[in-house]
Write a structure and sequence with these properties.
33% of the residues lie in helices and 28% in strands. It is an alpha+beta fold. The strands form 2 sheets. The chain has a 7-stranded mixed sheet with strand order 8-10-7-11-9-12-13, sandwiched between helices. The protein starts with a helix and ends in a 10-residue tail after the last strand.
């Protein structure tokens, strides 16, 4: 079973209904409560998968746990409001360990105006597990930005460098909440689709394409401009190319956006973005045009949770 297979089954099994505007299939769900739209997301982090408590500081781990959900808010272009934190703590933990973990959470939560309002705590004889559930609301200036609005002719942009995050950036990234707010406000209806890059652009871009019913063509030359220095360092270590790391490593937590083709995004928004490709017909699929001018299929080589 692959994650995409499970998500597809869940979308069919739990269709949006009643007060649910958007259910399974985007960075956050959208529900209506008392005439007001709220957005919901949840992220579970496991010791040994998303962090390593033997080598990573507890404050760093706490920071990442909250920042992952904040990045979902950024992917929808919405305002974080509150979060609950549920923990499965190792029995050997002392009070000082919990204080360090929550210290990291509190710093990043307060920075983005997100209150930590509760949760659940259990203990067991196994490694640390953290689950964060977050509530957000739309900014007054614009509606939430979905994955499903991209159209043929849009250009694709990212907000930062890709690849090599395991060298430390996966614990220290800045959620692009403020950038998303500005992009949504200044681009308005020209911002057709957006999401955060958590599993690698080779996996996340096809998700945007599926949601919008279109295809995409990455440009190898343009994408080469956003390959991170860490990706190049990783390539020297393991023999994979820096480009492969940029496509597949995951946990970049940058934004991927599809914008009306004739808009100068950086000029209009003032946000630093880099073009990486364009939206094309679904018949093309998801491809990358090489520097030799030949299109090659982009395989989903990013992080896969269920394998």
């Amino acid at each position: 079973m692959r994650e995409s297979e499970l998500l597809s089954w869940l979308e069919d099994a739990f269709p949006s209904r009643g007060g649910v505007r958007l259910g399974v299939g985007d960075d956050m769900a959208i529900v209506t409560v008392g005439g007001r739209e709220l957005l919901l997301t949840a992220d579970m982090l496991l010791d040994g998968v998303h962090f390593d408590s033997e080598t990573h500081g507890l404050a760093e781990i706490g920071y990442k746990a909250i920042a992952c959900s904040l990045s979902d808010c950024a992917g929808m272009g919405v305002k974080p409001v509150a979060a609950t934190v549920s923990l499965a703590l190792p029995r050997r933990w002392q009070m000082v360990d919990s204080e360090q973990l929550f210290g990291g959470m509190r710093g990043v939560a307060e920075r983005f105006g997100c209150a930590i309002v509760g949760g659940d705590t259990t203990a067991w004889d196994k490694p640390l597990v953290i689950d964060v559930a977050m509530v957000a609301e739309p900014f007054e200036t614009h509606d939430p930005v979905l994955r499903s609005g991209a159209v043929v002719g849009d250009r694709l942009f990212v907000t930062g460098r890709l690849g090599g995050s395991l060298l430390g950036r996966h614990l220290q990234f800045t959620p692009r909440v403020m950038e998303a707010q500005v992009l949504g406000e200044r681009l308005g209806a020209d911002l057709h689709a957006m999401m955060d890059l958590s599993d690698g652009i080779s996996t996340d871009l096809p998700r945007l394409c599926d949601a919008s019913g279109i295809g995409a063509r990455l440009d190898e030359g343009l994408l080469g401009e956003v390959v991170s220095a860490e990706a190049s360092r990783m390539a020297k270590r393991d023999g994979r190319s820096a480009m492969e790391h940029a496509l597949c490593d995951g946990e970049d937590f940058e934004l991927l956006l599809a914008v009306e083709g004739n808009v100068d995004v950086a000029e209009v928004s003032g946000v630093a973005v880099w073009p990486v490709g364009e939206i094309v017909s679904s018949e093309v699929g998801v491809v990358m045009c090489g520097t030799d001018g030949v299109d090659r299929v982009v395989g989903a080589g990013g992080f896969e949770h269920l394998t």
